[in-house]
Amino acid sequence: MDGPSDLRWEERLVAHRGLAARFPENTLASVRGALTAGVRRVEIDVQWTSDRVPVVLHDATLERMAGDARACWQVELATLRELRAAERGRFGARFSAEPFCTLAEFAAAMAEAGAHAYVELKRESLEHFGTDVLVETLREPLRRLQGRCTLISFDLGALAQVRSRLPHPVGPVLTHWDQVESAELRRLEPEVLFCDDRKLPPGSVRAAAPICVYEVTDGEHAKRLASRGVAYFESFDVERLLRELARSER
After folding, report:
1. 240, 21 in Cβ contact below 8 A?
2. Contact 166/135 with Cβ under 8 angstroms?
3. CA-to-CA distance for 124 and 146, rounded, in angstroms?
4. Which of 19, 23, 151, 217 has minimal CB crowding within 10 Å?
5. DSSP secondary structure letter of residue 181
6. Contact 71/79 with Cβ under 8 angstroms?
7. Cβ distance 151 to 119 under 8 Å?
8. pLDDT of 42 higher than 90
9. Is 52 left (phi over 0), alpha (psi -120 to 50) or beta?
10. What CATH code would you report for 9-248?
11. In the predicted model, what is the mean pLDDT of residues 116-126?
12. How high is the mean pLDDT of the chain?
């Protein structure tokens, strides 16, 4: 399928963990920064606490974000609330008051903005708790985003359960391009496909669903990918990417 060339760039760029170039990733500050920059799509990651609350976090452990070596599933939400998602390795003490964000809080911010969310279900938590247990925990937090939320994952089995149990579109994250022809993916009938741009085949890119590529770092690269049929472009710095694209079209 060709990319949606009739959409503005603001509608084709996906903020990777929010505006992660300027704020601690996967925080409300990062999400709101991306929305303020003007994009209409934000991708975040979800892990689960020990009391099975979905929270917005990429890593299995809290080390990089909060300096705590425990896995997310080793702490209850109440304990996580006492920690800070400061990402001191990048920002020092600048965001020392920034809290972790629950999926419900993220969904509320996205619903208020009328923007589209891509929610990646991380395999570490899925393997720890079991997909059967976790899928149902997504229903209530995402209720306000029905019609504006796509659940994505490397785990096709988890997406199959989402497809059968929740009212949201799904999007596999490809480990290699040949997956687009696999029987498992065809049965899933996804609404979008995520792929590392280095794994794309040469030339025109065609698949049964629109393609979102990551990680796009400059405007000229985004334009080249668009000319090949890519639909959406994921970036840690959508603010800079939007500026570059706007300059190139003057």
Report:
1. yes
2. yes
3. 25
4. 217
5. G
6. no
7. yes
8. yes
9. left
10. 3.20.20.190
11. 98
12. 96
CB-based contacts of 144, cutoff 8 Å, min separation 6: 107, 108, 111
Query: Which residues, other chains included, contact 25 with Cβ-Cβ below 8 Å and sequence gap of 6+?
Result: 17, 18, 58, 65, 87, 236
Give the type of residue at 238: V
Two tokens, residue 119: 């929610």
Residue ranges per domain, the chain? 9-248
Contact 141, 102 (CB under 8 A): yes
DSSP string, 73-139: GGS-HHHHHHS----HHHHTTTTTTPPP-BHHHHHHHHHHHT-EEEEEE-HHHHHHH-HHHHHGGGT
Query: Which pLDDT belongs to residue 196?
Result: 97
Q: Residue 111: which pLDDT band, with cuts at 50, 70 and 90?
A: very high
Distance CA 9, CA 162 (A): 29
pLDDT for the residue 3: 42
Residue the block writes with tokens 């988890």: 158
